[in-house]
Amino acid sequence: QVQLVESGGGLVQAGGSLRLSCAALGSIFSINAMGWYRQAPGKQRELVAVIARGGTTNYADSVKGRFTISEDNAKKTVYLQMNSLKSEDTAVYYCNADDVRTRWYDSDGMDYWGKGTLVTVSS
Questions:
Q1: Which value, in Å, is the radius of gyration of the alpha carbons in the chain?
Q2: By the 8 A CB rule, do 98 and 32 touch?
Q3: pLDDT (tens digit, 9 = 90+) per residue, 33-92?
């Protein structure tokens, strides 16, 4: 059983910073990529940032230059450092783990989602 456990959300003033963490727990052999998505009220879930095995990163245009995604492979943990926060960053942030394999001989992996952590930016 694989679980993604998020932490670090909260209330912050515009211009402030927050750091989100997501730990992948369970018997895991490999993870192809981990990332953060967000969903604001009345909107669809959207990609915020993703980091692939090997370190390649990708960001939504709206967060480039303000957010940084990083990982600790040994801890199977991904972080999202969010700076210069804006009111439009208010959303529930979800962690995702893509193509998770629990055994070395698995031909296909599974995707997992965390339960989400709320980030509220007050203007």
A1: 14
A2: yes
A3: 999 999 999 999 999 999 998 899 999 999 999 999 999 988 899 999 999 999 999 999
Q: Do residues 96 and 37 make contact, with C-beta atoms less than 8 angstroms apart?
A: yes
Tokens 């480039």 belong to residue: 64
Contact 96, 35 (CB under 8 A): yes
Tokens of residue 114, six digits: 């965390």
CA of 45: how far to CAs of 17, 39, 92, in Å?
22, 4, 9
For residue 66, what are the contacts with CB-CB under 8 A and spacing of at least 6? 82, 83, 84, 85
Element (H, E) at 61: none
Q: What's CA 117's distance to the chain center, in Å?
A: 10
104, with CB counted inside 10 A (0-12, 13-18, 19+), is: exposed
Instruction: Give the Cα separation of 64 and 118 in Å (integer).
Output: 20
Strands 3-7 and 18-25: antiparallel
Please report, as a single letter, which amino acid is at residue 18: L
Cα-to-chain-centroid distance, residue 102: 20
